[in-house]
Design a protein that fits this description.
Length: 320
C-alpha cells in the first residue's frame, strides 16, 4: 500500500523526516510517535502535497513526486486540525467534498447519506457544523475522508480532543472502516495503547526516524521476563517473600510486582533459558509452596519507547 525509501524532509531549522524506509501493507496500520515526530509531515508527502527533500515514496503503486493527483483520487484524508466551515450542515459539506472528488450529484448525495449514517451522524446531518461537539466534528472529518470510497485513508490524530468514551467509539469506527468496507487505514496517534487495540500493524517514529515497524502481535509478544505467583502456607505465611529470598540466595535477582496494579504477590525475574524455569520450580517445591502461575510477561507497545530511551542513555553512558 505504502512504500518509502530513505525519505527525508528538512525544514530550515528541523529535520522532520530522516531517511525513513518503511513498507505498509493492507489492513489497519498505526503510525505512532510523540508530538513533532514527523507523522503529519509523512502524510502530506504521501498525499503529494509536500515534496520530500530526498528519497522516494509510492502509495498504491503511484509515485508521490509525480502522481499526487491520482493518489488523492484513491486516498481519503482526515486532517488533524479543525478545518470545517461552521455555517453549513454536515450533509452540505460532505456532498461538496464528494463533488470535489468527482462524484456526480446524485451519487454524491447517496454516498453522503450512507457515510454519515456509518459514522453515526445521520440524525444531526442537517444542523450547522458550528453547533457540533468535538466528537461530531471529528466524525464529519472522517465522513469526508470516506465519501468517495477510497482504497486507503489517512487519519491524522482522529481521537484528538475526545473523551474516553468518544475515543473508544472513534477507534471502533476506524476498525470497521476496514472490516466492513475493505478500506485500508493509516492512523496516527501519540497514544500507544489505543493503537495496540485497533491496528494490525504498528510503525513507530521518533525524531523523524523509524524506530520499529512490525505486526501488533509481535509488539506484544512474550518477553524474557517471568512472572511467578505462589500460595502461602502455615510454615511460610508470606510465600512470595520466601521465594524471593530463596532465589536471591541462589544469585537470582527478583523484583516484586508491587508497582503493578493488583500484582503485589507477583515476582518478576529475567529468564536465562530453561535453567531458570527448573530453578524456580525446585525452589518452590523445596519450600512446599503451591505454584499459582509461572508465565512470560507480554510486551506493551509503550515499552518500545522506554527500551529505546534506556538504550540511548546506556549508549551515552558508555560514550562518556
Ligand atoms: N512547514 C513547516 N515548517 C517548518 N517546520 C515544520 C513544518 N511542518 C512541520 N515542521 C516541524 O517538523 C517536525 C515534525 O512535525 P509534524 O507535524 O510532522 O509532527 P507530528 O508527528 O505530526 O506531530 P503533531 O502531532 O504535533 O503534529 C516538527 O518539529 C515541526 O515543528
Amino acid at each position: 500500500m505504502i512504500v518509502t525509501e530513505s525519505l527525508s524532509k528538512r525544514f530550515p531549522r528541523v529535520t522532520a523526516l530522516d531517511r525513513l524506509s518503511v513498507d505498509v501493507g493492507p489492513g489497519v496500520t498505526g503510525l505512532v510517535g510523540a508530538n513533532g515526530a514527523g507523522k503529519s509531515t509523512l502524510i502530506k508527502i504521501l498525499l503529494g502535497l509536500s515534496p520530500a527533500t530526498e528519497g522516494r515514496a509510492e502509495v498504491l503503486g503511484l509515485d508521490v513526486a509525480t502522481e499526487g493527483a491520482a493518489i488523492r483520487e484513491r486516498v481519503g484524508y482526515m486532517p488533524e486540525h479543525d478545518c470545517l466551515p461552521p455555517d453549513v450542515s454536515a450533509t452540505e459539506f460532505v456532498v461538496h467534498m464528494a463533488r470535489m472528488s468527482g462524484l456526480p450529484a446524485t451519487a454524491a448525495r447517496e454516498r453522503t447519506a450512507d457515510t454519515l449514517r456509518h459514522v453515526g451522524l445521520y440524525e444531526e446531518r442537517y444542523r450547522p457544523i458550528g453547533g457540533y461537539s468535538t466528537g461530531m466534528k471529528q466524525r464529519v472529518k472522517l465522513a469526508q475522508a470516506l465519501v468517495h470510497d477510497p482504497q486507503l485513508v489517512f487519519l491524522d490524530e482522529p481521537t484528538n480532543g475526545l473523551d474516553p468514551v468518544g475515543r473508544d467509539e472513534m477507534l471502533g469506527l476506524i476498525r470497521r472502516i476496514h472490516t466492513d468496507f475493505g478500506i485500508s487505514v493509516l492512523v496516527t496517534s501519540h497514544l500507544l495503547g489505543e493503537l495496540e487495540r485497533t491496528c494490525d500493524h504498528v510503525v513507530v517514529v521518533d525524531g523523524g526516524k523509524l524506530l520499529r515497524s512490525s505486526s501488533t502481535r509481535d509488539f506484544t509478544q512474550t518477553t524474557t521476563t517471568l512472572a511467578i505467583e505462589v500460595t502461602d502456607t502455615d510454615e511460610h505465611p508470606d510465600g512470595t517473600r520466601a521465594v524471593r529470598e530463596a532465589l536471591h540466595a541462589r544469585g537470582v535477582t527478583v523484583q516484586d510486582g508491587s508497582g503493578l496494579p493488583g500484582a503485589g504477590h507477583i515476582l518478576l525475574l529475567t529468564a536465562q533459558g530453561e535453567d531458570t524455569y527448573d530453578l524456580v520450580r525446585d525452589v518452590i517445591a523445596d519450600l512446599g509452596l503451591g505454584l499459582v502461575r509461572m508465565e512470560q510477561r507480554r510486551h506493551q507497545i509503550a515499552e518500545v519507547f522506554t527500551n529505546d530511551d534506556a538504550q540511548r542513555k546506556e549508549a551515552v553512558g558508555h560514550g562518556g
